[in-house]
Design brief:
291 residues, alpha+beta, 9 strands, 36% helix, 15% strand
C-alpha cells in the first residue's frame, strides 16, 4: 500500500480510496490503480482509472471489452462505472503486487526458475487469447499483477486506448515502460499478436535483469535465446506464445497454469510482501468525512 497524494480522488464511485497500489513515481503504469472500500466497510476493491492526459473514452471502451472476457490469466473486470469524463472499473480485492513491486520486495531480479514460471503462465494466457483473436495490447511490467496463485495480465488495451500515431513520444503516449513497445508499434502501427510477444520478451527481460532493454550479457544464459527471439525487430521472427511456453517450461501441460487455484511457489520475501499488504488493507481505516 502506498499513501495517497493530494491529487488522488477521495472517492471512486461509491468507494472511498484507501491507498495507491503503485509506488509514487512508478514508471510505465498506463492507468491509475487504487485500493478502495465501500462506505459501509463491507467491500474492499481494486479500483482503476485512466491516467491523466489519456483519452477516457478510449480507456473506458477497453475496460468494457476486458469485462466481456472470460479468459483465464487476465485480471478480471468486475464493476464498471463513472461518467464519460471520469470512467472507472473495480475488481474484488485480493493481495496483489505489480511486477516492479515484486522485484522491490525480492531485492532485485528474480531467480531463473521463478522467471520461467511467471513467463510460462503469461505465455499461456496470451496463447489462449490469441487463438480467439484477442490481442492484449498492454503487456508491460506494471501490467503483470502477481497473486499468491500466480500472475494475471492487467492494463488490457493500453496501446489501443492511447494510440502512438502522431504522439511526440510513444512511451508518453501509452504510459508503457520504455522497451515494451515493438518497433512497428512505436512507428504508429496497430497492436497485434506479434507486438504482444515482443512485450512478453521485455517483461521476461525485466523480471530476469530489472531492465526491459538489458544488455545481452545481463540476461541469464538459459533465458537469453527465448528473450532475444521474442524481442526480434522482425515481427515474423518472433515465436508464438505456445512456443515460448514450451521453451520456458518444457513438458508443462497446456492449460494447467492460468487460472490455477493452488498457491504458487514464491520466495519468502514476496510472500511476506503479499501478506503485509493484506494485513494493512484489513487494518486500514476509512477516511474521515471531509478528508
Amino acid at each position: 500500500m502506498e499513501r495517497l497524494r493530494q491529487d488522488d480522488p477521495a472517492r471512486i464511485g461509491e468507494f472511498l480510496t484507501l491507498a495507491r497500489l503503485d509506488a509514487d513515481g512508478s514508471r510505465g503504469v498506463p492507468e491509475r490503480r487504487y485500493l478502495a472500500r465501500s462506505a459501509d466497510g463491507g467491500h474492499t476493491v481494486l479500483a482503476f482509472l485512466p491516467s491523466p492526459g489519456s483519452d477516457p473514452a478510449r480507456w473506458a471502451a477497453e475496460a468494457q471489452q476486458a469485462a466481456r472476457l472470460n479468459q483465464p490469466g487476465f485480471w478480471p473486470v468486475g464493476q464498471l462505472g463513472g461518467t464519460p469524463a471520469f470512467p472507472w472499473y473495480s475488481s474484488p480485492y485480493r493481495p496483489v503486487l505489480p511486477l516492479p513491486a515484486v522485484l522491490a520486495a525480492y531485492g532485485g531480479p528474480l531467480p531463473e526458475p521463478l522467471v520461467r514460471a511467471l513467463g510460462g503462465t503469461l505465455a499461456e494466457a496470451l496463447a489462449s487469447a490469441h487463438v480467439l483473436g484477442i490481442v492484449h495490447g498492454g503487456l508491460c511490467p506494471a501490467g503483470v499483477l502477481l497473486t499468491a496463485c500466480g500472475p494475471l495480465l492487467g492494463c488490457f488495451g493500453a496501446t489501443r486506448a492511447n494510440p502512438v500515431a502522431g504522439a511526440v513520444s510513444p512511451t508518453q503516449a501509452t504510459g508503457l515502460e520504455t522497451g515494451c513497445l515493438a518497433p512497428e508499434l512505436a512507428a504508429g502501427g496497430p497492436a497485434d499478436r506479434a507486438a504482444d510477444v515482443y512485450a512478453l520478451g521485455a517483461v521476461l527481460a525485466y523480471a530476469a535483469t530489472g531492465h526491459t532493454v538489458p544488455e545481452q550479457q545481463e540476461i541469464p544464459a538459459g533465458l537469453r535465446d527465448i528473450i532475444t527471439a521474442c524481442r526480434s525487430r522482425d515481427p515474423q521472427g518472433r515465436p508464438e506464445p505456445a512456443r515460448v511456453l514450451a521453451e520456458l517450461l518444457p513438458g508443462a501441460a497446456y492449460g494447467a497454469l492460468t487460472g490455477s487455484t493452488e498457491p504458487m511457489s514464491l520466495p519468502g520475501r514476496i510472500v511476506e510482501a503479499l501478506s503485509r499488504q493484506s494485513a494493512e488493507v484489513l487494518a486500514a481505516a476509512l477516511p474521515t468525512q471531509g478528508h
